[in-house]
Design a protein that fits this description.
single chain, alpha/beta, Rossmann fold, eight-stranded mixed beta sheet, 8 strands, globular
Length: 254
Amino acid sequence: MTPKLSKEELERYDRQIMIRGWSEEGQLKLKKAKVVIAGAGGLGNPAAIYLAAAGLGRILNIDNDQYELSNLNRQILGWQKDIGRPKVEAVREKLRALNPDIEVEAAATEITAENVCDLIRGSDVVVDAMDNWKTRFCLNSGCVECRIPLVHAGIHGLSGQITTIVPGEGPCLQCIIPKPPPEIRPFPVVGATPGLFAMLQTMEVFKLILGLGKPLVGRLLLFSGEDMSFNTVQVSRNPDCPICSRTQPKSRVH
């Protein structure tokens, strides 16, 4: 039997169903989709909220940390009462309260080269909401190997960047950044910066699943909050990339 949207779902998602190219058919695609959010911090929390609110059927949030007081200026699903609590548990609780029609899974584990494919396999899109380059490059390798689109974003202070990686169609993260930048711990950040980029990541997820518009494949979008400037840079595949040089394109999610 073909799944249908309930009366409550049609009412809940009415305004987005009105978007040209979205429709009830697109909403069903969201309902059947699974997205992995790697990270439950400044990027992962708002991305999770908006994916859940839009009716993304299955969300798997992966993070091995607990909330600390210094997280609460930007990690908006961590409240005062959640200090010391595993982040993914607090996220799951609040997303279920926000939208009981979706499935939310939590994995309180570290992403490694050994487990990355097991964690992301079966998902339609992976959201890179990490705060370190080692794990980002691990996700990149896993997504290329498993042929899963990856929406990358990184922030620092009032600035950041975002790109979408579709294996075989455009450059992977290692094509764009051949060597991982040095890790800076802790790094400066105000909540509005990861909030902005999480919203852009969420928009890319919708576009990939629904087949809307033009995702940021082969383009790196840069933002500076100091002068409120957006710039887009064209980026290309490295034919000698050790990660993606032999990867051929596959059909999109939609």
